[in-house]
From TrEMBL:
Major subcellular site: membrane
PANTHER family per UniProt: NA(+)/H(+) ANTIPORTER SUBUNIT F1, NA(+)_H(+) ANTIPORTER SUBUNIT F
InterPro entries in alphabetical order: MrpF/PhaF-like
One Pfam family linked to the record: MrpF_PhaF
Family stated for the protein in its record: Belongs to the CPA3 antiporters (TC 2.A.63) subunit F family.
The protein's name: Na(+)/H(+) antiporter subunit F
An MF annotation (GO) of this entry: sodium:proton antiporter activity
Amino acid sequence: MSTMDILWLVAAAMLLIAGILASTRVLGGPTTLDRLIALDMSIALTMCGLALWAGTSGDSSVVSAIVAIALVNFVGSIAVARFRVRDDKR
């Protein structure tokens, strides 16, 4: 196993751990903004995973998918932040 293979595995493991942490925040976030930030983070992790795949395989066809996901995520985040209802105080 080469050094680059070990680096790819470490990067994939870090993305997996970050995805697990983001999903726990989505499920247990106390406010809607916490959940929104966690969803943005999970989409960013998806983009990082695609970039990791592109770097591993040498296939650059997923770069357009990364750009499309980034644009849709930006528009969705702005829409949710603009039209969200304020949380009730507990």
